[in-house]
Amino acid sequence: MVLYFARLQILSCAPHSRIMHRAYTMVASAADTGADKDAPLKEDIRLLGRLLGDVLRAQEGEDMYAVVETIRQTAVRFRREADAGAAKELDGMLKILTREQTITVVRAFSYFSHLANIAEDQHHIRRRRAHLLAGSRPQQGSVSFALCKLAGAGVDEATVTRFFRQALISPVLTAHPTEVQRKSILDAEHDIARLLAERDRPLTPKEQAANLHLLRSRVATLWQTRMLRYSKLTVADEIENALSYYRITFLRELPGLYDDIEADIAAQYGGPDAPPSAIAASYVQMGSWIGGDRDGNPNVNAATMRHALARQATTILDFYLDETHTLGAELSVSTLMVRCTPALQLLADSSTDSSDHRSDEPYRRALIGIYARLASTARALGAANILRQEVGHAEPYENAAAFAADLQILIDSLNANHGAMLVQPRLSTLKRAADIFGFHLASLDMRQSSDVHERVLAELFAKAGAAPAYAELDEEAKVALLLAELGQPRLLYSPYISYSAETESELGVLRAAREIRQRYGARAVRNYIISHTETVSDLLEVLVLQQETGMLRTTDQGSALDLMVIPLFETIPDLQRAAGIMQRLMALPLVRRLVEAQGLEQEVMLGYSDSNKDGGFLTSNWELYKAELGLVQVFAQAGVKLRLFHGRGGTVGRGGGPSYEAILAQPKGTVNGQIRLTEQGEIIASKFSNAEIGRRNLELLVAATLEASLMPPAADDAQQGQLAGFEAVMAEISERAYRAYRDLVYDTPGFTDYFFAATPIAEIAELNLGSRPASRKSTRRIEDLRAIPWGFSWGQCRLLLPGWYGFGSAIGGWIGEGDGADARLVQLRAMFQHWPFFATLLSNMDMVLAKTDLAIASRYSLLVQDAALRERIFKRITAEHAATLACLERITGASERLAGNPLLARSIQNRFAYLDPLNHLQVELIKRHRSVGHEPGKVDERVHRGIHLSINGVAAGLRNTG
User: Which sites are catalytic (predicted)?
Assistant: First the structure.
């Protein structure tokens, strides 16, 4: 591997020519050849590969370096030539590696995956800057592009600004058991990315040498840093990991994005010299599940919720204090030179600062007072981490709005007194941050499974003498009892009765939520998500629990509900019931009053992961589409605004894929300026560990939501009829795909045994990856396995089965043979060309198939000791794979994967050279691990560690596997 990249070491001897080449490439026009565009990427990968090779030589010796390269070359030969001899040679080579050598080889290939990801991210930034420098037209996915498209369709500025004032776009960070990045690794990689970016600037020879030295030292730091956790990750660890992305990206880039969008609107509708039009609303807000998601995680409770908000408050208040202190140094404006407003003078005079040296500097005096109030606020909220002592004592702010109001006084004074240019960037960014993040940073969602609520209510009803066997009642009786209870002024709970630990814990969590809202503001906790929602009673139960804890209050003046109750529809049957459940729920007078009190808005969450595991890729996507259409109709009839919360994962099999295309492919009427979606697992690091990449990903969400919400619908009756025809075809295809998928996964004898043997699922369950267990129950049933490790396991063995299985059987069976086959194929091609939903579905599957590798998967199949079972199931999988490829080619006309996205195709192909050896090594290590069993004293911890390292490396190489 490293020898391959070391061949171009001569590049390091010509710094001036390389600088000129990189500078030329950055400003090249979009008409440049593909080779020219990618030249800096290749150079960066070569450089990082060479540095890794240097470190490997220095740390492990020349012999180990040669072993790594020999393994890489043999793995490449195995791939390119399908050489049986190469396979045998590779197998023999891996078997004779010592435990120490194996770990070294795994680490080398794993770190190269990480370094290649850094180079790719930097190249994306470079190409974006090249477009901007060249004055290219706005790129798809930018807000500028969306505004241009909308203006061309006749959408005026008033409509656009009204959209932003009413919109809510919320990425929600979640912690999941496939997250494999350690914060120490992220920190080192962040430094490498920064140093790599420096090389795009003109550097003197000394600066070039210093940069190279620092890069080498950071790569060496990576090599000497433990990649894995040796202890189980706690919820507190997950909270800290998530907060690091706020410091890197969200705190500065999100307010900056707001400024860019205002400038884009002004440029589109008012011309290039038009001043930005201020939009006061906070239309992008961050959310989090980390510390509030209790579903299947016994480690989350009231204490973790309180800890999560305390740490979030500390993070945002630290930012406010630092920025306020810096502003105090910057705003040295004197009233001897320029006037200030009476409001600012009053704020300065009420400050804790009484120094004569600053008597003519009202902005500094005001900021000293603001700093003192922030410091007191931090102490009052339990977020005290004040590095600089404030001047004097001040009362804490009552809320973040009061803090923002003080900042607005400074802004208004500067604007009124020739200081408008001083507002940007720091003061306006701080004010915008106060509006977006408040004192809570991100809204913490609560989530629990419906069966837990049922058990808690059953105990409360029984001990209160209201219903002895609530859980045994039918649905209608449950609804009647719950509605009756919601009309009662008294509580079921008594402090004088003993309850189970589960009941006390669940009520304690809700009481903690009430305290958090009082402490940090209403936005700190505002959503309660119910997993496995199957009935109306599942939703009413949470209303009763809120009533029990003072979060639902009914008076003569009306009803007030603190937490919006949000159903999560996950499985295929749940999705099919979704519209009917919401229709019955919102028809209840009590619920209608609560929805009205919420501003006639109601959120519904759709689960992509479990529906995929339940019904397969194609059927999951179709049932989600139908559920959305049904919900749109129900909500329109009820006169309620629908907000969909998309529970998407990293893999395509879990709803992953490009967010921009996914939002645009949503059925008409399902976005309307309101969307929330999860960002999960290592996808968080991929999207937000680099500030510029993070800002671009946030802009993609806004641009897609803007375009999906405001683009006028097609009014052509013929087009509407065509869509109805497309949907009818999709219904037939989905039914066929569902049968094919279920037949393999749930109805084939021995499939569970095959899955547990031919994938590293057992080893993944042992990893110290997250605080949540990989399975909901201690069984080997597919039904009980969490969808996340299910998809993660198939990615590790390079089959990625949840992202494509069933498509070939469905399409091939529907097209059939004979006279009607050609017409049906024409219909499918029309669906691909004219229906965004179907085109996006095929595009995502195309990407999955590009990463699928049957040759590698065949190595994993050899882990199945039952030869007859192995041959029977793997043969079925390979046949379906071949059928899927054939059908995809017939529809799209592309014989090569990712023909429409050559950049991604090259990226994936370039990864195979260092990804394949990791898979081969993983198989060998799993063999060793399983051969000794799990008896005490027999497990080789170094082998165990090697497996975990390989899992990390494969995940990094595939990128979207969580």
Answer: 176, 613
